Amino acid sequence: MTTTRYYITKPGGTPTGPISLDSLRVMAQQGALTPDMLCRAEDADEWKPAGEIVIIHNAPVHAPQACAKPDTRLTKSIVLLVLSLVLFPLSFFVAVPAVIFAALAENEYNHMRMNTCLSYAESARLWVNISVVVTAVQLISYIAVLLFVLVIGING
């Protein structure tokens, strides 16, 4: 199995890729890769019409291997958002970006755009971590205020 990957684009469009040869073959078989689309190998400089690249059209088609789904942290970010609404209102403002980035990562995964999926998942991870820190600071503040009130009440 070859490890060469390819980029594809419609004339005047934005390149997409890198894409495995097996994926290109499946795309060609399904009509998603048309002969007039431009294609180039990852290590090449020259774009060629996909219809001229024999290796794509005259080979057996194998289903591409599915990518493992990354942890988009959607569930964690939603739980933090709900907790922040109920108990820790300041955390709400950092929980919202966590949910947004996690939802974007899920969407990119569902559309098989792994590079942007991983980027959004990493942003979601960062915002979930920030939310946890802000929530912890708020919890510690609540406990400190409660202890202060108890001490003042006992000594007051």
Question: What attributes characterize this protein structure?
Answer:
single chain; 156 residues; alpha+beta; Dna Ligase, domain 1; 2 domains; 4-stranded antiparallel sheet; 56% helix; 10% strand
Helical residue percent band: 55-70%
**Binned strand content:** 5-15%
What pattern of helices and strands is seen along the backbone? EEHEEHHHH
How large, in whole angstroms, is the Cα Rg?
A: 25 Å
- Overall shape: it is rod-shaped
Q: Based on DSSP secondary structure assignment, what is the total number of beta strands?
A: 4
Number of helices: 5
Largest sheet: 4 strands, antiparallel
Kindly give the count of domains: 2
Low-confidence stretches: 59-66
**Strand sequence of the main sheet, in spatial order?**
2-1-3-4
Question: What do these coordinates show?
Answer:
This protein is of the alpha+beta class and 156 residues long. The protein is built from 5 helices and 4 strands; from the N terminus they run E-E-H-E-E-H-H-H-H. The protein has helices at 21-30, 54-57, 74-86, 92-110, 114-155; strands spanning 5-9, 16-20, 38-41, 48-49. A 4-stranded antiparallel sheet has the order 2-1-3-4. The radius of gyration is 25 Å and the shape is rod-shaped.
